[in-house]
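Suppose you are handed only these lines of text.
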Amino acid sequence: MQSKTPQWQSACKKTLLDFSRNDSLRFWGWGHIIDGEKLPPFDYRYEHTLAVVKLGKWLAPLVNADKDILICSAWLHDCKKRLGTKGKDNHAKEAAESVEGILNGTDFPPEKIPAVQHAILHHVGLKLAETLNPIETACLWDIDKLSKLGTASLIHSICILPAFQPATTAEILSRGENWLEIAHSIVTSMNTAPAKSEATRRFELLQSFYKRFREELSSGC
Ligand SMILES: [Fe+2]
Ligand SMILES: [Fe+2]
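From them, the structure of the protein bound to fe (ii) ion can be written out as follows.
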């Protein structure tokens, strides 16, 4: 029998989905009408968050992290991140400040809220100078960055590209190859052993994908 989704998880999911859908429609400037509802061509923020939540469910038991704290921070870490905004980025601070209001009146243990806020405040950046603490904060950084490596990350980056600029095959390849350098520093910065091992596996896949992509584009076969 499947266990019932806790009320707080439904509240987090709804908050994130409402925000990401509106923000995606704003950024794309158009949407598909499905059953009378306007849907963005691709809701990057929501798809990214789903991947992060799934990774949290995988990682939490492997490193004895508190699952409530990790899954809650996974749902909400980007709940204020807008597509295409330039200048000072405050999305982690804004998200951390909104946590209490989102969870208010739900069944989320209130004593765990400061740990959720701490994890969200420290999830930004693509490399780390030192290991993060406590374990839930370390894990949120790891799963957020792991979601930017591997097969789903390829799909996510290709699907969102046309919202930013006209996409061509050559442009997708060149952006992907540039990303590999950053991706390597993500792998070396991983906080936890299981995430580092998975990041290495995903990085190798990206490397071989772009190598083959370059060969195919150069030779035609
Ligand atoms: Fe973020
Ligand atoms: Fe994120």
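What can we learn from it? Residues 77-78, 81, 91, 123-124 surround fe (ii) ion (ligand 1) (CB under 6 Å). The chain has nine helices and two strands.
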